[in-house]
Amino acid sequence: MNEIQTRIAAGLERAFATHGFSAPNVDRLREAAQVSLRTLYRYYPSRDDMVLAALEFRHERYMSRIFSDLPALSQDALCEVIRRIGHWMESEAAHGCLFHSAVAAAPENPALKQLLRRHKLEFARRLAGAAGLPGYETELLLICEGLMQSWPICGDKACDSAMRLAAALLVHADGTARGNADTGGNGTVVRQPTERITP
Amino acid sequence: MNEIQTRIAAGLERAFATHGFSAPNVDRLREAAQVSLRTLYRYYPSRDDMVLAALEFRHERYMSRIFSDLPALSQDALCEVIRRIGHWMESEAAHGCLFHSAVAAAPENPALKQLLRRHKLEFARRLAGAAGLPGYETELLLICEGLMQSWPICGDKACDSAMRLAAALLVHADGTARGNADTGGNGTVVRQPTERITP
DNA sequence: CTCTAGGTAGAGCAATCATTCTACCTTGTC
DNA sequence: GACAAGGTAGAATGATTGCTCTACCTAGAG
């Protein structure tokens, strides 16, 4: 991915995140990407390709923003992830998760569905790893999905609630620890005190 | 709302739920509503009005489906709501929550945002009431939002996870019960045994 | 200096869209 | 039987769309 390609992808992501996936026509996308129409089509030969490019660009940006330099202690990491998602929503995703938005705008496009699935499963896997909760991928994903969807409605209260649910989950998990059947882990159960995550 | 108006709204809801909010043009909507173009426009003078009509119709249907005839015991009610949401996803919302989809398709339409907000807040309020957890509206909303968003990805595992989170929340709430500051309740804290909701 | 790769600007095109309009049919009421 | 209200079918319209194409510019290599 050369420099101009990066510029285009960043512009596409910004345009779709700001105005949704239906509203911006190709000329608006061109404007956001700051290239000529011909160049835009050279790299992404159809509007659908532009959507995919924007999502792949965002995936990289999101993952690095959420998971870079997390605290080593797993409860601190989970807490920090929730906080970062809150900041992400505020600064970058006021309209909600871009992947869900893309699928919502074109629910019959299988490529988008697959991208959504990959994005969310990778997120869940990495979060379960960082939070020291192998086997709880789905619960963690559910909390974060709930946070992202209710943030536009409840604002920071959604963050607080996510923290409380995470704390409750840690207590619960502490009593009924599961091995990790999904990620091919070695079955070792990580247990640590849970008092660190507080509302 | 007379008979023909109901038929139109039901058809619109079905069309948008099946194909999303961008794909169906007005002629497809007319086909789904089984009326003439002129009649369709008589009741809903623009496509945007058709979207709003579909959402209002779905709101009524969803609320009655989720909250009708719930068990009296509050933990059973919460459990049953989660189960019903799972069935709803399976039978009616394979593409995810229709209200979020509508906002995602047109994020700059304030009427849609307001409708989403009203829908979700009413849902949260009624659920907190039915679950005997006044003051926990946001946590309950977060769980259900997470369930609806992760269901298309994780299927029934999302239901199981939502049950576990609800159980964990009940344990947590039992120790730190809050009054209900949001719904104008009388401050009485409802406490009941929590063992009834199990994964 | 010439050539080429890859950029810009923007006109043109066929298709599709939301919306309006014309013309006709059905049904219950006076 | 005349009438009005409200239905059907579908053509017409003007705007917009995604995409293609022509014509030109520019920088670096030879």
Keywords:
9 helices, DNA-binding, homodimer, disordered C terminus
Question: Could you characterize the architecture of this molecule?
Answer:
Two copies of one chain form a homodimer. Chain A is an all-alpha fold. Chain A folds into two domains: 1-68, Tetracycline Repressor, domain 2 (Orthogonal Bundle), CATH 1.10.357.10; 70-199, no CATH class. Helix content of chain A is 70%, strand content 0%. Chain A contains nine helices and no strands. Chain A has helices at 3-19, 26-33, 37-43, 47-67, 74-92, 98-105, 110-130, 137-154, 156-175. In chain A, helix 8 (137-154) runs antiparallel to helix 9. Chain A is elongated, with a radius of gyration of 19 Å. The termini of chain A are far apart. The interface between A and B is large, with 47 and 47 residues. The first copy, chain A, binds a DNA duplex (30 and 30 nucleotides) through residues 4, 25-27, 35-39, 41-42, 45-47.
| Helix/strand order of chain A, N-terminal first | HHHHHHHHH
Largest interface: A-B, 47 and 47 residues
Major sheet of chain A: none
Proportion in β-strands of chain A: under 5%
Classify the secondary structure makeup of chain A into a structural class. mainly alpha
Indicate the mean pLDDT of chain A: 89
Gyration radius of chain A, rounded: 19 Å
The tally of beta strands of chain A, per DSSP, is 0
Counting DSSP H or I runs of 4 or more residues, the number of helices of chain A is 9
Q: Approximately how much helix is present in the residues of chain A?
A: 55-70%
Unreliable sequence segments of chain A: 180-199
Q: What gap, in angstroms, lies between the N and C termini of chain A?
A: 42 Å
How many domains would you count in the coordinates of chain A? 2
- Oligomeric form of this entry? homodimer
Shape of chain A: elongated
